[in-house]
Structure formats: C-alpha cells, structure tokens
Specification:
Beta-Lactamase; Arc Repressor Mutant, subunit A; 3 domains; 5-stranded antiparallel sheet; 11 helices; about 20% strand; elongated; transcription regulation
C-alpha cells in the first residue's frame, strides 16, 4: 500500500472512531439528562465536531408547503427567532431544498438568496446554515435541525455529510430521552398499577407512550386509534367516565399520566375517610371521635357512600378499597 493510500486509510479510521464516540456520547446523554437539559447537552457535544454557534432543533408538520411547529429548542438564539422566521417563511429557500432531499443535509448561505433570509441572518448574526430533516417513524412529524455559523464562517461538504449520517441517531436519541423521562416519572409515583404514561405536544400529538396508554384511552374512546389524543381530550388534562389524565408541563411538551378511574373516585374526601376507617374495623363512635364529627354524621356519610358505590355492607366497601392502590 502506498503512503498516500495508507494515510487515507488512517484518516478514514480516525473519522469512523470519532463518529462512533460521538454517537455513544449522544445516546448516553439521552439516558442521563432530563427532558429540559438534553438538547443543550447534545448540541454542546456536536460543537466539538461541527463549527456552529447557534441552532434550531424541533419537530414540525409540513402542511401545504408551510411549517407548523409542534415542539422546538433554540440554542444560542433569541427567544423571538421563530416568530421572526415565521414572518419570512415564504422567502426561505431552506424549506424547499431540505424537503427535496429528506435525510440529506443542505448548506444555505443566508446572504446569497432572498431578501427575507438575508434580513433574518443580519438580525440574528447568522452566516451560513446547514439543515437536515428526518421523518420520525413514531410521530410521523418531521424532525429538523438547523445549525448556524457566524458571518464569515463556512460549512463544508464534510460537515454536511456528517450531519446527514447523524440525523436519524439524533431523532432516536430524542425519543429515548422522552422514554427515560417517563421511566423516571413512573419511579416517583406511589401508585404503579392501572396507569400509563406518555409525552405529547400542544397539538395533542403523542411523541412517546407506554404500551398501556393506548389501551386505557380505548376504554374511554373504543374507536380511537392513532398518534394524536382523541377529540375532546386536551394535553392539559382530562376527566372522563373511565379514565382521568393528569398533565405536567416540561418545556413545550406535556407529560401525561392516565389513570383508570376507581369507583371510589365518586366519593367526597370525608366519605372516603369514613370508608377507609370502617374497613379497618372501627366503630361509628371511634370514627366520629377521630374525625371530630357526630356518630349520626358518620351514619349519614355511610348511607351516602353505599348509595354511590351501589353496595350494601361494610365487606363490599373493604373489597373495593383493597382493589384500589393508594394514590
């Protein structure tokens, strides 16, 4: 092998080793970092191999030639960047170029095309960008990543090819990070049964979900299927006939916990207290003394909870309580 061929082989080995280490680091970060911290950590790692100082990373739908953002993360960019971009969206050649070559990164000089793109670059101190899109198989949304270098700096074909090979891994890492978030959330719950977890965006599109999530939603909406919350179910929460959904906001996503409703959910807090103490074998007088109410009031609560639960004795109440995990 000639010296030139040997040098080329050595350089190829070096680049493959660099790529392997980068991918391992990205997937490690997806397991270790929170939902709020993952994107920044991953982009900081990418800066070690790509010459950018700002980035826009998100998931969007491409509808009639327009981009509708479902979730996004800005790195080094002003909070108003996306609104500025929307004002010149029709003038951005990047959208057309990227969708002509899905999965292939494209380089765009923001000052060599349209007046709108030039204005955006000048306003935010951006020179060239390299952009890639990838259709996420779970959400059917478009994952997009645009990396920006400052005025005077340049991306080259090696950078473009590297981002092309990275995009599917970055999309998978976002999914893995969301699943890790669901696992961590489940570990913090005192109740573990009759529930399932999911992540959705403000449009109700599910990004990640435990296997039981669809099963529980189907109990409330038997004909429902798909990757979007059923009509009438909001990301902010839901209370229905058979399920209830609690929601926690994290960045621009919603962490959902769906619970199968218990018959005990129809009881007031005082009725539930009476039911629990009654099932423990306490007498009316003991319950009255502990709750600071009259024995006649205890009897009133008991009649009311019997009626609501459609039962007729203490043993039936105790059975229902034993089937309901503490929440």
């Amino acid at each position: 092998m000639s010296d030139m061929a040997q040098q080329a082989a050595t350089e190829t080995e070096r680049q493959l080793a660099e790529l392997s280490t980068l991918l391992l680091d990205i997937h490690r970060l997806s397991r270790e970092r929170s939902l709020a911290a993952f994107h920044d950590a991953a982009l900081q790692r990418l800066q070690q191999v790509l010459p950018f100082d700002k980035a826009w990373w998100g998931r969007a739908a491409h509808i009639d030639g327009r981009i509708e953002e479902h979730s996004f993360h800005l790195f080094g960019l002003a909070a108003g960047f996306v609104e500025d971009w929307r004002s010149i969206q029709h003038d951005d050649v990047t959208v057309e170029h990227a969708h002509e070559l899905p999965g292939q990164a494209v380089i765009v000089d923001m000052h060599a095309h349209t007046s709108g793109l030039r204005w955006l670059g000048e306003r935010h101190g951006l020179g060239e960008l390299v952009c890639v899109i990838h259709t996420n198989p779970l959400t059917q949304l478009t994952d997009h990543l645009s990396l920006y270098c400052p005025l005077g700096a340049r991306f080259d074909d090696r950078h473009r090819r590297l981002l092309t090979h990275l995009v599917a891994h970055l999309s998978a890492a976002v999914d893995a990070n969301q699943i890790r978030t669901l696992i961590a959330r489940r570990e913090r719950l005192t109740q573990q049964q009759n529930l399932a977890l999911a992540v959705c965006d403000r449009h109700g599109v599910l990004h990640s979900a435990e296997r039981g999530f669809a099963e529980l939603l189907s109990e409330e909406w038997p004909d429902w299927q798909g990757s979007q919350l059923p009509e009438g179910c909001q990301p902010s929460g839901y209370l229905g006939r058979t399920i209830r959904i609690e929601s926690q906001v994290d960045q621009d996503l919603f962490l959902l916990t769906v619970y199968r409703r218990s018959p005990l959910d129809c009881l007031s807090a005082r009725e539930l207290s009476v039911a629990r103490q009654l099932s423990q074998g306490q007498t009316y007088k003991e319950i009255a003394r502990e709750l600071g109410i009259a024995p006649s009031t205890v009897r009133h609560h008991l009649r009311s909870l019997y009626q609501k639960l459609d039962v007729h004795d203490k043993a039936s109440v105790a059975t229902l309580l034993s089937r309901t995990p503490p929440g």
